[in-house]
Amino acid sequence: MTVNLIGLGRDVYKGLPTTLCAGCGHNSITNHLIKALYEYGVEPHRLAKMSGIGCSSKTPAYFVEQAHGFNGVHGRMPSAATGAKLANRDLLVLGISGDGDTASIGLGQYAHMVRRNVDAVYIVENNGVYGLTKGQFSATADVGSTLKNGTPNEYATIDVCGLAIELGATFVARSFSGDGKQLVPLLQAAFSHRGTSILDIISPCVTFNDHAGSTKSYAYVKDHEMVANMPDFIRPAEEVTVDYEPGMVQEVRLEDGAHVLLRKVGHDYDATDRIGALKTIHETRDRGEFVTGLLFVDPNGQDLCEREKMVQTPLKDLGEEDLRISRSEWSALFSG
Questions:
Q1: pLDDT tens-digit map of 299-328
Q2: Are 121 and 106 in contact (CB under 8 A)?
Q3: Cα Rg for the chain, rounded, in angstroms?
């Protein structure tokens, strides 16, 4: 049996059979997650899967069945993810959310998780509708897009990538559920990044939002995708040969020694330019396009645990003697 670098087979990274609609983009994301986690070599007992409420929040049941999992209240996944990371810095915290769970009821929690730079991977499975309540527009629906009955959306969209960059995010990417070649390396780079890694993944809803007039349909995304870069993720312990496509190559070294190679496609894009990233997001949205790839990364930002000067030992492993100061230390503290 073929195994990964820690000796585990691919079956270890699978979960329960999906109950989502056949053809749902979320199922494709699950398959890409399984591939990314397997190749990266994540130990199941060190993975914490977090989710809120919605079709997207069922996804954690469908991969790495042996990992830790917590399904929280609608829009409150970031709180659970933050608590898990603070309790155990050794965990890879992976949050799965949706456009409603993130950009509507959970918008406040999303914003504060980003600005605190919690060391976690935050995936938004974005289909632009509320799939569990019969397909109403969500806050990420584009102006002018229509429901199946022809009703147009008249409200401005909330761009979760643009908002994340504005709030100081240190890793922001966008991809498409049907593009595993781009998405798998982005996921692996997010695993390796220290800080909040935002991945907005356009994931068409085949039941309510895959028709003419939808800007989140399979056909529309394929026809209107503007690729900023195609990434290759290289672990520090591996020797990897990469077949580069024509164009410039930008190398970004991450905190653990891994690095991401970004092959520019069609134009010169600098993934370390925060203002340039926002400009690109706005310009492509005005043209009715989706820009995909690693939109922005800052490998030097401090995560929440660093900023709060937390000890390296996970809090769950600290005993009473580690948490209580002595009588003499207490007296010294108040004598000054």
A1: 999 999 999 999 999 998 999 888 888 888
A2: no
A3: 21
Is residue 178, in this structure, part of any structural domain at all?
A: yes
Q: How far apart, in whole angstroms, are the C-alpha atoms of residue 40 and residue 35?
A: 8
Would you state the pLDDT for residue 93?
Answer: 98
For 253-308, write each residue's pLDDT tens digit. 998 889 898 988 766 899 999 999 999 999 999 999 999 999 999 999 999 999 99
- Read off the DSSP letter of residue 318: -
Region label for 144, one of left (φ > 0), alpha (ψ between -120 and 50) or beta (otherwise) = left
Q: Examine the pLDDT at 217 and tell me if it is beyond 80.
A: yes
Print the domain residue range for 87.
Answer: 10-320
Residue 163 lies in a domain: yes
Is the separation of the CB atoms in 208 and 135 below 8 Å? yes
Residues 6+ apart with CB under 8 A from 71: 51, 52, 53, 57, 60
Distance, C-alpha 146 to centroid of its chain: 27
Q: Is the pLDDT of residue 238 over 80?
A: no
- 307: Cβ–Cβ under 8 A, 6 or more apart, which residues? 116, 117
Q: What is the mean pLDDT of the chain?
A: 93
pLDDT at residue number 326: 86
| Strands 68-71 and 92-98, bridge-based pairing | unpaired
Residue 295 carries which side chain, given as an amino acid letter?
L
Count of structural domains, the chain = 1
CA 149 from centroid of its chain's CA atoms = 32
- Residue 31 within a domain: yes
- What does the block give as tokens for 2? 């073929």
**Per-residue pLDDT reduced to its tens digit, 160-178:** 999 999 999 999 999 999 9
Q: What is the CATH number of the domain that holds 52?
A: 3.40.50.970
80 lies in a domain? yes
What SS3 class is residue 150? coil
For 225, other C-beta atoms within 10 Å of its C-beta total: 20
Rounded distance, CA 222 to CA 291, Å? Answer: 11
Element holding 262 (H helix, E strand)? strand 259-264
